[in-house]
Write a structure and sequence with these properties.
The protein is globular, with a radius of gyration of 20 Å. It has twelve helices and no strands.
């Protein structure tokens, strides 16, 4: 078996220019007659002992959307190779509907078995597929329990893509740079602590601004102006602000 480094996952998925993400493409809906031969060919190639060949087999499923394709991708979530599993998660984001959501939501549930790489990619896929009526609560819980910056970035992106009204308070909570309330307090953590938090914040700060704009139609750069708008103009449009815990 060929071991594939997680950092190569994006490269393995590329069919065009660097930076392409198959989830961002509007794939056609396939007929059963079109989808079933693709699914059958994938099943055959997935018997390979080589991880790269199994990845290539999954890539062929990015031709369109169909329940038969979702079924093969769900099977691949149990593959013994981590990269194959991640590619399956990413490609589920090219599909639509409750079956794709059902497969992805358990991967983003916070807990001891949570995998940050799988989780962040599953969150991104849910941003395209949708996450249903109760999905935001799962993502919100993950945001507060899982501190990995890539996971948090993925959540901030996903709720903006889904124009999730319930996410405005969470997004507002991460608009401001993390700094000590009282810089003269001798009990403050050392500068290295704040540098670490700054590095986390800067990783997805612009995503928070962009997601808030996607949801509210307004562009905010700090929490004070965002809260002021929500509690005045925003509430007329059904927005509500709830104070959040310190995210840092």
């Amino acid at each position: 078996m060929v071991a594939v480094l997680p950092g190569l996952v994006a490269l393995l998925l590329l069919a065009g220019e660097p930076g392409d993400d198959p989830r961002a493409k509007e794939l056609p809906e396939l007929t059963r007659e079109q989808a079933e031969p693709l699914a059958a060919a994938c099943r055959e190639k997935m018997r390979s002992k080589e991880a790269l060949e199994r990845v290539a087999a999954l890539q062929q499923l990015a031709a369109g959307r169909h329940d038969a394709i979702i079924k093969e991708l769900v099977k691949a979530l149990k593959d013994k190779d981590r990269t194959v599993r991640v590619v399956a998660i990413q490609l589920l984001g090219t599909q639509r509907g409750p079956e794709a959501q059902k497969a992805l939501l358990p991967i983003v549930t916070a807990g001891r078995s949570f995998d940050p790489l799988n989780g962040s990619e599953a969150v991104r896929s849910l941003g395209y597929v949708g996450y249903g009526k109760n999905g935001f609560k799962i993502l919100e819980d993950l945001f507060w329990k899982q501190r990995a910056k890539e996971v948090r970035k993925a959540i901030v992106e996903a709720v903006g893509r889904q124009k999730e009204k319930d996410a405005v308070s969470l997004l507002i909570a991460v608009l401001d740079q993390p700094v000590p309330k009282d810089p003269n307090d001798p009990n403050n953590p050392p500068p290295s602590f704040w540098q670490e938090k700054y590095d986390e914040w800067i990783h997805f700060k612009d995503d928070a601004i962009n997601s808030l704009e996607a949801i509210t139609g307004k562009r905010f750069f700090n929490s004070d102006t965002a809260i002021d708008w929500i509690e005045n103009e925003g509430k007329k449009q059904g927005f509500k602000y709830t104070k959040q815990p310190n995210p840092w």
